[in-house]
Design brief:
Elements: E1 15-16, H1 19-23, E2 32-38, E3 46-52, E4 57-61, E5 66-74, E6 76-78, E7 81-83, E8 88-91, E9 97-100, E10 106-113
Antiparallel strand pairs: 1-2, 2-3, 3-10, 4-9, 5-8, 5-10, 6-7
Length: about 120
C-alpha cells in the first residue's frame, strides 16, 4: 500500500532535458526545464513541474500512460485551444499531441498515471 508522501517543490532541483530530447527539437527552440516532484515507481503516479520557455514548441509525441497537465502560469496552446492558469487537459495514453507557447511561456504540473499497481515485492 502506498504511503502518504509530502512533496516540497523547493526541495526539487530544476533539471535540463536530455541530449536525446534536445535532438528532436528544431534549431533555435528555447526549450524547457523541469523538476521531478514524484519519480516513477509502482503504485504511485509520477509528477513533474515543467517550465516551457517563451516560443517553445513541443513536437508531436505520445506517452505510454494517461496524463493530466495543469497550468500554473502563462499559456499553453493545444491546437486551437489556449490553456491558462487553472486550466487542465487530460491526454490518454498513446494519443499523439503537440503543445506550444508564445511570448509568456508557461509553467505547469504534469501528473502521469503509469502502473498504479502497488509493488507486491
Amino acid at each position: 500500500m502506498a504511503e502518504i508522501r509530502l512533496i516540497r517543490n523547493a526541495d526539487a532541483p530544476w533539471e535540463e532535458v536530455s541530449p536525446e530530447w534536445k535532438a528532436n527539437q528544431k534549431a533555435g527552440d528555447p526549450g524547457l526545464r523541469f523538476k521531478r516532484l514524484i519519480s516513477q515507481e509502482a503504485g504511485m503516479p509520477n509528477m513533474q513541474q515543467s517550465d516551457y520557455f517563451p516560443h517553445h514548441h513541443e513536437t508531436p509525441h505520445s506517452h505510454p500512460e494517461d496524463e493530466i497537465l495543469y497550468v500554473l502560469s502563462g499559456a499553453i496552446f493545444f491546437g486551437r485551444e489556449t490553456l491558462g492558469p487553472g486550466d487542465a487537459i487530460f491526454v490518454p495514453k498513446g494519443k499523439i499531441y503537440s503543445l506550444r507557447t508564445e511570448d509568456s511561456g508557461a509553467e505547469f504540473v504534469r501528473i502521469g498515471f503509469g502502473d498504479l499497481t502497488p509493488d507486491r515485492g
